[in-house]
Amino acid sequence: MLRLRAFRHTNDKIVKIQLHPTHPWLVTADDSDHVSVWNWEHRQVIYELKAGGVDERRLVGSKLEKLAEGETDLKGKPTEAIRGGSVKQVTFYDDDVRYWQHWRNRSAAAEAPSAANQHSPAFNSPVPSTRGRHFLVVCCENKAIFLDLVTMRGRDVPKQELDNRSLLCMEFLSRSATGDSPLVAFGGSDGVIRVLSMITWKLVRRYTGGHKGSVTCLMTFMASSGEAFLVSGASDGLLILWSADHIHDSHELVPKLSLKAHDGGVVAVELSRVMGSAPQLITIGADKTLAIWDTISFKELRRIKPVPKLACHSVASWCHPRAPNLDILTCVKDSHIWAIEHPTYSALTRPLCELSSLVPPQVLAPNKKLRVYCMVAHPLQPHLVATGTNIGVILSEFDARALPAVAALPTPPDSKEHAAVYIVERELKLLNFQLSNTANPSLGSTGTISETGRSRTEAEQLHVKQTKKHISTPAPHDSYSFLSISSSGKYVAIVWPDIPSFAVYKASDWSVVDSGTGKLFAWDTCRDRYALVETSLPPRIPLIKGGSSKKAKEAAAAAAQAAAAAASAASAATVQVRILLDDGTSHVLTRSIEGRSEPVIGLHGGALLGVAYRTSRRISPMAATSISTVQSMPMSGFGNSGVMSSFAAADDPFSSNKPIAEAAPQNFQLYSWETYQPVSGLFAQPEWTAWDQTVEYCAFAYHQYIVISSLRPQYRYLGDVAIPFATGGVWHRRQLFVATPTTIECVFVDAGVASIDLETKKKKEEMKAREAQSRAFAEHGELALIAVDNPQVSTSERISLRPPMLQVVRLASFQHAPSIPPFITLPKQSKVDGEDTVLKEMEERKVNEVAVAGGGVSVAVTRFPSEQKRPIGPLIVVGVRDGVLWLIDRYMCAHALSLSHPGIRCRCLAAYGDAVSAVKWATRLSREHHDDLAQFMLGMGYATEALHLPGISKRLEFDLAMQSNDLKRALQCLLTMSNSRDVGQEKNAADITEILSLTVVKQENLVDAVQGIAKFAKEFLDLIDAADATGQSDIAREVLKRLAAAGSVKGALQGQVLRGLALRLANHGELTRLSGLINNLIVAGHGREAAFSAAVLGDNALMEKAWQDTGMLAEAVLHAHAHGRPTLKNLVQAWNKMLQKELEHTPSVKTDAAAAFLASLEDPKFTSLADAAKKPPIEILPPGMASLSAPPITIKKKPPASATSSQSPSTTAQSPSTAAQNPPTSVQSPPTAVQSSPIPAQSPSTEAQSTTPIPVQSESTATQSTSDSQTTNTETDKPPMSEAPPPPPPPPLPPADQLDGTPVAEPVSNSVSSPQATTEAHTPSEVAS
C-alpha cells in the first residue's frame, strides 16, 4: 500500500521542492542553492544549475549565443553574471501548469451550493500562452531565472527591473484583460507585490499598501462567486486578499481585505477543496499553528497545533480514497508526514507515514536522524507525495489503486438521468447525473460550424448536470470502503476492509439484506449470488480476577490467542457462496469451496469465481494486492489507538521495499459458480478482473499489462495490451474502457476466427442436423429418412481465418496539446513577440482541425480526437451511457468524456455491432482515414460493410472484397489497378481498316495494361482460385483472359506465374487459349514454360517444337529419345552441329602467372578446330544410341565385378591420355558416358566449371520422371559428370571403337524446373580434359 516510488540521495538538505503536474519532473533546491530537475520515473537528472552564485556554463552559453546572433558590443555585464543569492522558490511554468492551476481553482469554487456555475467544472481552458515551452522558474533574492527546458535558453530578470527589492516568492496570474499574459507576481522584501509580463519582460503593475513586512507566500484562487483573487501572507502575520481580475487595468492596486493570521509571520498558504461547500484556505505560521479560513465570510473556522513544540513548514490539501477522512497533510522537521483527520471538527493529527522506514537503510548514517524540510503532494495524482529531507528526495506512493467509494446503478430504460450510490463519512448518498446540453451527441447533429470554423460538438465540453441526495439509511463505519453492485443492479454491497465488515443493501429501499464480518467479497456477473470469506473476530481475552498467579494469567492469555489464531486460520480458508432470492433473502449455497488449504487473500467476481491463495513465501508487492474485489489490507491506523501509521500496516506487503521485478507466484484459481469445482490451472493473481456482460470476453489486469481473453466457444488467450498501472475497467460489448492514474484508454477487442471456432461451429451444426433427423424419425418413421438429392452447385462459403485484434486508443490524459518546441513549428519571430497574425492563424488551425466537406457537413481532419482532459485523481469508470463515457472522481463528481469524434464513434459503433451506422458516421471522417477505419472493421469482422466506405484505396478494396467473397467487386478493383479493362476482349469486327488503324495510343495502353497485370499477377491467380472455390467460373474466365493476354507478351510474366496460368487454363478447358499461349511463349523464347504448358495440354509434338524452336536441343533430344519419336535422328544431328559450331569461339586467355603455370602442367588443350580434325568428330548422343558416323559394332558385356565398374552395369570411358594419370572413375546408376573431353557445356551454366561436385537433375518432361544424378570429380579441374534418366528399354552399350577413341560425352542438361529460362545465348566455357 505504501511504497517508495523513487529516491534520490543528496548530500545537502533539500529545502525547496515542486512537482510538475503532467511530466514526471521534480525540481528541488538544496541549502547550498543548487537547483536540479529530476525525472522520477526514469531516475535521471535532466538539468542542474547553480542558482545562488554565477553559473559559468550558462554565462559562457549566453555569450556564445550573442556572438552567434552577431551582437559583438556587449553593453555592460550580462544578467547571467549576476549572483543569484539564496533560492526562495522553484517551480515549473507551462501550458499544463497553467491549465491545471486554473482547473483546480474553478472546480474548488464550483463545489459551493451558491456557485455561479452549477455544472461540473467544464470551462474554456486558458489560451495556450507559453507556445510549447516548458519553463523552469527559479526565484532567487537578486534575480528571477526563467529557463526553457526545451531549447535550454534562459532569461534572467535582475531585481533592478523590479524596483531593486529582493524577491522572496512568486505566483503566476492566469487572467488578464490586456494581451500581456502570462504574468508572474513577485513578493518583495518591502511588502509590495510586483507583476512582471513574460512577453515584454517589463514591470506591469504593483499591489501596494498592504503589508508592513516582507511578503513570504502568494497564491491565486477563485471564490464561489467566480471572482479571481490573489492572497498573500507576510512576515507581519497578515493575510491579505487582492483582486486578480484585472478588468480595471490600473498600475497600482490596493488590498480588498486584510486579516491577522499568525503571530510571527505566515509561512505558507494552501487552497482546500471541500465537498459540497465553498473552498477553504489553510495557512501555517511561525507560531506553530495551522488555521483554516472560510472563503465566503473570511472567518477563521479552526486553529490547531498539529505537532506540539514544532512549527510546520509545508502544508498540502489532500483527498485520497484510501483515507477518506484525512484532508490535510503537513510536515514539521521530523521524519513523518502528518495527516489531519476531519480538520474542521475533531482535527486529530496522526502520522501518515514514517519516512525512515521507506529509505534504504544504508543511506542513513547510524547516528543521523531523518528530517523533512519541505513536502509537496502531486497536483493531479494524489497518491504521490514528494518530500525533501536531509538525505535526499523521497517520492512516496500511497496505494495508487484505491478507488472512490461509489458504484453506478443501472439506468431505467426510459430515463435520461443516471444514478450512482456513494458513501461520505457515515452516510449513504445518491448522485444523479445527466448531460445538460440540449443537443444529444449520440443522435449525431451534423455539428453546425460556428463562426470560427470549429465544429460545435467538438469544441464545447460536455456540461454535466448533477444533484446529490441523502439516503435515510446510515452506514455503520466511516473508514475506507468500496462498493460493488450485483449483476441485476438490485443489490449494492459495501465492504469496509479495515474493520473488517460487509453489508449488502437492497437498492429499492436501502434495507440491509445481509451483513457480517469479512473483507473478501465478489459478485457473480450472471446471477445475484456472491462469494465471501467470513473472518471470525478475535475473542476477547478473559479478565482473570486477582488472586491467581501471574503464570496462570499468561497461560490463559496464550491459550486465548492460540484459539483466536486457529479460528481465523480456519475461517480464512473457507469461501462461502450465497444467493439472493427474489424476495430479498439470502441463502447459503455452499459453506466452502473444495480445493486448497492455504488461506484465501483475494476473491475476484465475474462469470467464474477467482480465488487467490496466500503462497508460502512472501509475495511480491505487486502480486499481493488486488483491488477490483476486496483486498486483504488491514489498516491498523483506524482500529488501533496507537500512533502507528494509518498507511503502513504490519501485514501489508507494500510496506516492504521489495523490488517490483520479483516473479509473481502462481496462486490464482478460477472456480465454476455452479459446481464449485476448479476450472483452470493456477496462474498469477491479477490486480483486478473485468468480465463482459455477454460473457464473451474477460480482462485480467496485472501491474504492467492487461491480458485479454475470449470465452466463447471456449477460453482462448487473445493477447495483452501494455497499459501499466491500470486501476479499473469496464466492458461495453467489444470495447474495454480502462482508467490508469494518468490516462483513460479504450481497447477495441475482437477474437477473430480461429480454426477451433470453425470446428466448434461444425460440431454444433452436426448436432443440430442429428437432432432434426431423430425428431423427424420419431414423427414420421422410416419415410422421413428418404431424401432425393438435387444436383447441388457447391458454393462452399470460404471462411477465412482472422487473427484476433486489439487496438488501444487513448481518450484522455493530463497533458495539454503535445508540446512542440517553438523553433520547430513557428515562423521566425521578431525580438519582441507581438501577437503575430500568422501565429494566430496557425494556433487556430491547430485547435480547430476541422474541414468542410460537400453539403456543409463538418469533417474531422484528424484520425482520432485530440486527447481530452482526464479528471484529477482516482476514478471509477461507469461506462458508456447517452453516447458518452462517464467517470466519477473522488469528490463524487461525474464527468463525461465525449466519444463523438467520427474516428472514435465509428470504431465504437463497429465494436458494438452496428457496422451500418459506423459506415454512415464515416462520412464525417476525412477520406484519408478511411483505409485505417476499413482495416479496423476488417479486424472486427465487417469486411462487407467496410466495402461501403467511400474513401478506401483500391488495393484495400480488393482485399476486403476477397474477404467478403464479393469477387465481382474484387475483379473490378483488379482491372482498375492494373489498367486492364480493355485487354483480352475479342473484337468481332474484323474490319480491315480497324486492324490497320491500331494506333500508337492503343499500344501504349497495352503496355500499361501488361505491366499492370504483371504487377498484380499473384492477386489475379488468387482471384481465380477464389472463384473456382465458390463456383463463379465467369469471373475466373475474365481473369484468365487478362492473364493469357499478358502471358503472350515477351518477358511480362515470371516462369512460376506462367506455369500457374497454364495449369489454370487447362483446368478451365480453355485449350485454344492455352495453345495460343504456347505459341506465344515459343516466339518469346520461353522454352521451358512453353514445354510445360504443352505437357499440360498433352501435345508431345508441341512440346518438342517448344524446345527445338527455343534452342533447347538437349531437352528435345532426351524427350524424343525417351518417347521413341521419329524425329530423334534429326534432332541429334542438329544438336551436334550446334555443339561443333560453339567450339569455334576462341577461349578466354588467362593472364595470371599461377594459372598459367597450373595450365602448363595439365594436358595440352585444343586451341583450334584444326587440331580436333585429326581425331574423329565429337558426337554427343543420348545413352544407347548408335553413333551417327561409325558403322554399328557390338561388344560383349564386361563382368559386373570388374575393378572399373560398380554393381550396376556402367561404363567407364576414358581417353587414353587421361587414363594414364587418373585412376578410373566409376559412375554409378544407369549406363552413361563420362564427359571428359573439351566440349562446351550447354547453355549459360557454370556448373561445368565448378570445382565441387554438384548434383544436377535432368528431367524428361513427357514422362515427368527425374533421377538424381551423382556427379563425381576426379581432379579439381575436371568437369562434373551427369546422367540422364534411363530410357525405358535397357539399351546396348556403345560400340567399341567409341570406347577407345572418342569419349562419348553427355551434356549437363538443365532441369526443366529451374527458374531461369534458357535463351538462345550459349556461352562457350572451357572444360579441362
From TrEMBL:
InterPro entries: TSET_complex_member (IPR053290), WD40/YVTN_repeat-like_dom_sf (IPR015943), WD40_repeat_dom_sf (IPR036322), WD40_rpt (IPR001680). Keywords: WD repeat. WD repeats lie at residues 259-303. Residues 442-471, 1183-1329 are annotated as: Disordered. SMART domains: WD40. Residues 1282-1295 have a biased composition (Pro residues). Residues 1189-1221, 1258-1274 have a biased composition (Low complexity). Residues 453-463 have a biased composition (Basic and acidic residues). The keyword tRNA processing does not apply. Pfam families: WD40. Residues 442-452, 1222-1257, 1308-1329 have a biased composition (Polar residues). PROSITE patterns: WD_REPEATS_2 (PS50082). This is Transducin/WD40 repeat-like superfamily protein. It comes from Canna indica (Indian-shot).
